[in-house]
């Protein structure tokens, strides 16, 4: 005959134990998921803050470093006209079509900087009146 038989558990009890264990495992995994989602959201916020800080820093130093090679920018004069002794500074219209008579009604100087490393010339329309020491000039 056969050896001693091991008493079998009731199938209902094993099922309930497994179901409870799975429910506990699911609850634990859901808590872990919520914690990880919160950490991910926090990390994304820190990353966005860091990126915005870097963007603001780059925006503030746009006139201080070359966009091509990150070299130092040096001020240069780019002028118009044929008279070397009396050059005409370049200006860019700021209110081109603001006047009913048409034409240029206001202008701002063009500031130029050359990179000391690669020689690339950067031109900026100087809208900051603090550098001019006055107001924008009216053109006739």
Q: Tags for this entry?
A:
140 residues; rod-shaped; 36% helix; disordered C terminus; two-stranded antiparallel sheet; four-stranded antiparallel sheet; alpha+beta
Describe this structure in words.
With 140 residues, the protein is an alpha+beta fold. It folds into two domains: 10-60; 73-125, no CATH class. The protein has one helix spanning 11-60; strands spanning 73-76, 79-80, 88-89, 91-93, 107-115, 121-125. Strands 1, 4, 5 and 6 form a four-stranded antiparallel sheet that branches. A two-stranded antiparallel ribbon has the order 2-3. Strand 2 and strand 3 form a beta hairpin. The longest helix has 50 residues, at 11-60.
Provide the fold topology.
Layout: H1 11-60, E1 73-76, E2 79-80, E3 88-89, E4 91-93, E5 107-115, E6 121-125
Antiparallel strand pairs: 1-5, 2-3, 4-5, 5-6
């Amino acid at each position: 005959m056969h050896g001693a038989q091991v008493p079998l558990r009731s199938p209902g009890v094993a099922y309930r134990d497994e179901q409870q264990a799975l429910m506990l495992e699911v609850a634990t995994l859901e808590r872990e998921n919520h914690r990880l989602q919160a950490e991910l959201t926090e990390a994304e916020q820190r990353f966005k803050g860091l990126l915005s800080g870097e963007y603001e820093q780059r925006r503030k130093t746009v006139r201080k470093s070359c966009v091509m090679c990150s070299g130092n920018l040096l001020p240069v004069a780019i002028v118009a006209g044929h008279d070397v002794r009396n050059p005409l500074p370049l200006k860019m219209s700021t209110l081109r079509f603001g006047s009913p008579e048409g034409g240029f009604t206001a202008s701002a100087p063009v500031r130029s900087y050359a990179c000391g490393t690669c020689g690339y010339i950067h031109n900026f329309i100087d809208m900051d009146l603090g550098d001019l020491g006055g107001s924008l000039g009216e053109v006739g």
